[in-house]
Design a protein that fits this description.
The chain is α+β, with helices and mostly antiparallel strands. Helix content is 17%, strand content 18%. It is built from nine helices and 15 strands. The protein has a seven-stranded mixed beta sheet, sandwiched between helices. The chain has a two-stranded antiparallel ribbon with strand order 4-5. The chain has a two-stranded antiparallel sheet with strand order 7-8. The termini are far apart.
């Protein structure tokens, strides 16, 4: 079925508000598809999202704890997290255009989650109007990255949620410049090369790629390397005086792409285990095919990529960096879209089998995101 017409008429500035204001039940159908179109007139509240949170997990009687209190104004990425599962609950912060978890030890995000669709990717916001990079005063001064940490470091201040992903609101774009959304990245050949092309490719999944809504979880990795003695060691640079900002060795993107806004309705949560059985249902808390729905025309697509924080030649194919989601989970310690089935089926497919994993060409000078390709970005 088509998305509700109220969705189609939304102005870019109304996307987040409609998803969280408590005024439009249609936001449910727009962003998580957990309610049918005929229920779109029902008042929207955060409690409509909470039932998707499983009370128990397989292998025990573990009650979910630590989940954040959802704010009155929620970024639309919350809808996918409530439906397909949160990566974790450490130091969560809600921005207008994304959700993030910040690591005060490494001074990097643990992860960020954003929602890409035509409404969020269009608008009048302009990075030239932003005040530039800023420290995140949510964290105490001695527990946050500072502008001086990056000065003369030779590393770019690399966005994990790109500024170009938040054109629907100037405030949303401004918040992508907070250092809690930034990691040190190699400039030439990575932040101003392969990584920027990956960001554009994610947007192109919406613009011409055949997906209405794309949710992206991005984060840093710190991977060991093998030494001459055959043992593995952690080795990465740390910026600042005193040195506090860790430089990731790699970055990951885990992508959930929906062909239509009601695609989620083809999957439903498995029922909680019956108390009388005395054992947890292995499928409890996992999304399984809905019994009353016909097979989808196109499956939901899942993809995971890990790229090194180093110059990458433009000729390298993106599929080289495709990995099973479990690999990212193993090294990050995060649960990434944990409720979605990982086995390929008519309901869920790997992203590179469902679409062409080919990056757009590199910019020669400046891209439409305004980034300079010939100097270290905004680092004096």
């Amino acid at each position: 079925r088509r998305a509700p017409k109220s969705c189609e008429r939304m102005l870019p500035q109304q996307v987040v508000a409609a998803c969280s204001s408590g005024l439009l039940g249609a936001a449910i159908g727009c962003f998580i598809g957990m309610r049918r179109a005929e229920n779109a007139a029902a008042p929207f509240s955060s409690s409509a999202l909470i039932p998707a949170t499983p009370a128990h997990y397989a292998g025990g009687d573990m009650v979910l704890t630590g989940a954040p209190i959802l704010p009155a104004q929620m970024p639309s990425a919350v809808a996918a997290l409530q439906w397909a599962g949160w990566p974790g609950f450490d130091n969560i912060r809600f921005r207008e255009g994304y959700v993030s978890s910040y690591n005060r030890q490494t001074r990097n995000p643990n992860w960020v989650c954003e929602h890409l669709c035509k409404q969020t990717l269009n608008g009048d916001a302009n990075r030239k109007k932003s005040a530039g990079f800023a420290e995140d005063d949510v964290d105490p001064p001695h527990m946050r990255a500072t502008l001086n940490d990056f000065k003369n470091s030779g590393y770019d201040r690399g966005h994990l949620v790109a500024a170009a992903d938040a054109k629907f609101s100037q405030k949303a774009m401004d918040e992508t410049f907070l250092l809690s959304n930034i990691s040190p990245q190699v400039g030439v050949g990575f932040n101003r090369g392969y990584w920027e092309r990956m960001e554009r490719w994610c947007r192109n999944l919406v613009f011409g790629g055949g997906y209405s809504d794309v949710f992206v979880i991005t984060g840093p990795l710190y991977l060991p390397h093998v030494a001459k003695d055959g043992n593995y060691y952690m080795h990465h640079r740390v910026l600042g005086k005193p040195p506090m900002v860790h430089v990731p060795t790699h970055f990951f993107k885990v992508i959930l792409a929906l062909p239509t806004r009601n695609a989620q309705e083809t999957l439903t949560l498995a029922p909680a285990p019956a108390a009388a059985k005395g054992a947890a249902n292995a499928d409890a808390g996992v999304l399984v095919p809905s019994g009353g729905w016909r097979s989808p025309e196109r499956p939901i697509a899942l993809g995971a990529f890990v790229v090194p924080n180093e110059p990458i030649d433009d000729s390298v194919d993106l599929s080289k960096f495709e990995v099973p989601i479990e690999i990212v989970e193993r090294y990050s310690g995060l649960n990434l879209w944990p409720r979605l089935p990982r086995k390929a089926s008519k309901h869920v497919a790997t992203l590179c089998s469902a679409t062409k994993c080919q990056l757009p060409p590199a910019f020669k000078n400046k891209g439409d995101d305004g980034k300079s390709k010939t100097r270290i970005e905004l680092i004096e």
